[in-house]
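Prephenate dehydrogenase/arogenate dehydrogenase family protein: structure tokens wanted.
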Amino acid sequence: MNVLVVGAGAMGRWLAERLAATHTVAVTDTDTDRAAAVAADLGLDTDTGGSYDLVAFAVPMSAIEPAAREHAGRADAVIDVTGEMRDTLAALRDAFPDAARVSTHPLFAPDNEPGTIAVVEDAPDDRTTAALDVLTAAGNDIYETTASEHDEAMETVQAKTHAAVLAFALAGDEVPEPFHTPISGPLSDLSDAVTTGDPTVYAEIQRRFDGAEAIAAAAERVASDPDSLADLFSEEAE
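Answer:
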């Protein structure tokens, strides 16, 4: 089938490369130079207009609504790898009311593939199934979920996790490697991973999902009364 990938960032490049294994793929982006560079690197076409069998959105959360409106009507099937389900599916339903729709969230960075891909099959058909088949063929595991279950989980696995790790990075000091414990060492490594990632992506996650305030409140509980620390550990162990 003919597929248009909207978005030529890291996830767009990954998705275009995967889909191109068995389908004809074109790439577009608001940055036309970036789209042209990705297309040239992967041996694909750039978008020249017209209709496709499937449009695949790989854009930031904040860009899905305008991107969906811009490309409305260009296909009868759509998928996305935006990373958020509620607002994304609402935007896709508005722009593609009669189309097949599936929302996906690869729970990994492209360099860390294979991994788990959360999937909400809002209105699937054979084209969206073919797109998912490409992702499973690359070794990824599909986890079927709902929009509400996914977005609630992201509050913990993304917003709260990133806030906690960034807070440690901001508060912690550099120490000689021999001093690190089995807990502090991996946490320090996680801090390096978070702070060397794309800050705009982490910022979008924090804006969309609640969680940072809960981490701050929990830290305040730990810091405010050292005498109750044993009780807090016991509370979490139950």
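Strands lie at 2-6, 24-28, 45-46, 54-57, 77-80, 100-106, 116-123, 141-144. The chain has a mean pLDDT of 94.

Cheers.
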